[in-house]
Amino acid sequence: MPRKPKTATEAQTALPSIPKELIDQFVKGPMTAEAVHAASAAFKKALIERALGAELGHHLGYPAGAVRPEDATNQRNGKSGKTVLTDDGPLRLEIPRDRDGSFAPILIPKHERRFTGFDDKIIAMYDAKLVPVGRPRHDGARDPGVSGRAVRHRGVARVHQLGN
Questions:
Q1: Which residue of 22, 71, 128, 139 has the fewest C-beta atoms within 10 A of its own C-beta?
Q2: Does the CA dihedral 69-70-72-75 come out positive or negative?
Q3: Is the pTM of this model over 0.90?
Q4: How many domains does the chain have?
Q5: With 70 as the cut, is the pLDDT of residue 154 above it?
Q6: Is residue 46 part of a domain?
Q7: Separation CA 7–CA 14 (nearest Å)
């Protein structure tokens, strides 16, 4: 019997592929539901922290680990801990800081303690064409919490460059 063709919605919500080697690091054998939840939380934490680091790199004008330009007066100044409430429960993050205190993260703004709808925010970034990958545009409703902000395209693109 032939397969039923995918609808436009199913094609748009296809997840990006994750390298087998990365999955092998998390899955060493059979996993319980709690272990799957813990691995998911660890991946979400790493993804958010990488995105925030890329935002800071864009804000400062040079990537982490690079030599600070001569004319730059602002620089990285460590990280501070912050617990945010996600759809899956509380998550402790390390938020990067700059010396001037002028860095205002977009993904999780200053003084924001709730980070719900993570998946919806990522979809909204795709919708606004802020995540530069060869995927079809999501035509659903935009999340006003993301698309209403002045999101810097190069800052989000930097997340992908740092990941490769």
A1: 71
A2: positive
A3: no
A4: 1
A5: no
A6: yes
A7: 11
